Fold this sequence. Notes:
27% strand, six-stranded parallel β-sheet, 17 strands, Rossmann fold, alpha/beta
Amino acid sequence: xxxxxxxxxxxxxxxxxxxxxxxxxxxxxxxxxxxxxxxxxxxxxxxxxxxxxxxxxxxxxxxxxxxxxxxxxxxxxxxxxxxxxxxxxxxxxxxxxxxxxxxxxxxxxxxxxxxxxxxxxxxxxxxxxxxxxxxxxxxxxxxxxxxxxxxxxxxxxxxxxxxxxxxxxxxxxxxxxxxxxxxxxxxxxxxxxxxxxxxxxxxxxxxxxxxxxxxxxxxxxxxxxxxxxxxxxxxxxxxxxxxxxxxxxxxxxxxxxxxxxxxxxxxxxxxxxxxxxxxxxxxxxxxxxxxxxxxxxxxxxxxxxxxxxxxxxxxxxxxxxxxxxxxx
Length: 328
């Protein structure tokens, strides 16, 4: 069977990583790349460097990785759908709900495989947490809390922190719990002098009653990517920077030594950091999308799911603007 012919459009910071993975992905030939600004990171590796999605389509590609700025996702996605080319589009799916709806509907109407690059789903720590939650290892889930903060990225100019970073937490929370958001309340701040927000605090509720909270900013000198899932039997802490998953069991041993109880609490439970395989999330994401295009069983972030994430993100922005809880 011939290899799939793949293209890549967008050769910026994320595009260079997608190019690296696509160039070494079994069963796939990266035949050309495109960016109107040229190949500043040397992604092409001798392949043709084109200027537009139309030129990329002319190369006879089976599917395309879209890593252009968010504001161009709609136009590029619709062009690929019209040409009958499968696509995986970097998150968020598009700049707003109407645009995301158009893209999702275009791929569905043509029977094409469309996916969104919410890479955190493929982080080994969250994959393992999801597996253990499905097995009932944590019991009922009560709360999901995430912290995602770090320095300001000058390269992001077309959306704020909610749609750029916050969409990671919206997607992973819905996915790991297998629930949907039913309400959000948010507050934002504008501290970097730009049009868009650079800090958000969100409280949410999911369809089975799970309470969530998400702290996201571009203002911190430290980089943090943490998800805490609390349930009947204890809590999972997933650090997606190190891909570690740690289980904190509920306390069963009473601490009677007052000096220790003062700083460790009145009871203790076991703490276990799981030994798990740690494949690169970006490679897993591409492997899953390749398999989906080939018609095999695959775990992709569908465009319908990506659309729902955009809707929740916009509900957060609306809540911050009005000061009211938004029901979804």
